[in-house]
Amino acid sequence: MSASTPAAQTPSATAPTAPSSGPALTFLGTGAGCGVPAFFCECPACEEARRDPRARRGDCGVLVRNERTLLLDTPPDLRHQLEREGVRAVDRVLWTHAHFDHLGGLGELEYMVRLVTGAPLPCAASPAARAGILAEFHYLDDILDFQELAPFDEFAFDDVRYTALPVTHAPGTYGYLMEGPSGRRTFYASDTGALPPETAERVRGADALIMDATFWGRNWSPGAHHSVQETIEEGLALGARTIYLTHLAMHYDTPITLAELEARLEPYDGRVRCAADGLTILL
């Protein structure tokens, strides 16, 4: 699995397009809802992030880029994240679910549609997520061209096939299995507890498993999230070639710094990695 240097070390503005070798996924944000550092927190993880840009995490979302650009979730940090990655157009939006930390930046796309493209933006989500999105952003109904996805629905976009797979979080939450032209299989589930059996079988042996790892130590919400340890255990049991930890709070239950977490991951010899804002992997 190929990976580039996180944007905190190599500014993405110098390379605003995806690698020429095919579709690629870029992490816009890799943090849980309050981000790292959280403005209200002075724990060791937040203080580390104030000193070291590499440890900073915005709210979760990813880009998939090839000839066109697909946005997976619209986190509140979206405008800054898209500018950081040199994005000038979004061609399609896909949502995992309708919680604020995955939805709150939708309003940033309004002006692209009204002032530039002039056409409703193709987008997709579960019926439950669509209802939540339009409840929060009822005034944007006219700029969104919605496709409702049932569990296990598939669609292709820009050389990548997407499958909507149910996960254990809010009603209607999906993870997405992405299959690129290279044959690589990547599963993205930023918010989930233990995977439902059918979803787990669908993603068994994935080349990259990108999954919720909100908690360090005690899991406050086992029906809706993983701890770091649980993500590693489930990923290894599923035979994932590389496991990327995302939706990292770093504050809960015991704060852990990035330096400490990376040291804990060393025994896995690169098979388990911390996702980072700006990191790009090939699909």
From TrEMBL:
Keyword entries, A-Z: Hydrolase
Gene3D superfamilies (UniProt xref): Ribonuclease Z/Hydroxyacylglutathione hydrolase-like
Location of the Metallo-beta-lactamase domain: 57-247
Extent of the signal sequence: none
InterPro entries the record matches: Metallo-B-lactamas (IPR001279), RibonucZ/Hydroxyglut_hydro (IPR036866)
Pfam family, one: Lactamase_B_2
UniProt entry tagged with the keyword Hydrolase: yes
Claim: Methyltransferase is one of the keywords in the record: no
Gene Ontology molecular function, alphabetical: hydrolase activity
Name of the protein described by the UniProt record: MBL fold metallo-hydrolase
Source species: Adlercreutzia equolifaciens subsp. celatus DSM 18785
Lineage start: Bacteria, Bacillati, Actinomycetota, Coriobacteriia, Eggerthellales
